[in-house]
Amino acid sequence: MNAIVAVDENWAIGKDNGLLFSIPGDMKHFRAITTGGTILLGRKTLETFPGGKPLPKRRNVILTSCKADIPGAEVVHSIQELRDAAAEEDPEHVFVVGGGSVYTALLPYCRRVYLTKVFAAVEGPDTYFPNLDKLPGWKAEQASEQMTENGLTYQFVEYINQNI
Known about the structure:
Layout: E1 2-7, E2 12-15, E3 18-19, H1 24-34, E4 38-42, H2 43-46, E5 59-63, E6 74-76, H3 79-86, E7 94-98, H4 100-106, E8 112-118, E9 127-128, E10 138-143, E11 147-149, E12 152-161
């Protein structure tokens, strides 16, 4: 499996249960990578999606402690169930998309992280992604040119987990 995430320069990913940035180029990149695959996410992350609904053209597997029926998604109640739901899929087409606790729990099983690094610091974030530059075994394999959109400079960086 893989992860896909956008971080600020301090590795922050969220504030008040919301995304930190709205960058159309990043959203297009996200769609291009995840469409046709399986996405694994927590219920609070689902609430940040348009209309709070599962994303189309993807298998959505939602982790929640609530008894919930979410049309267009599969609901699981533990990290192990989340992993089991993706076990039969091609691991290259499985993507962890948040939130913070789901990323932390599944990062050791991820082979690759598709990271959008935004060169800005957000004030008062409350959710962070592990700093891959400081985690043993993680290596930035390739990076795109820097781009600027909506007044924000960013680049796409792919990290490889050398521990797997």
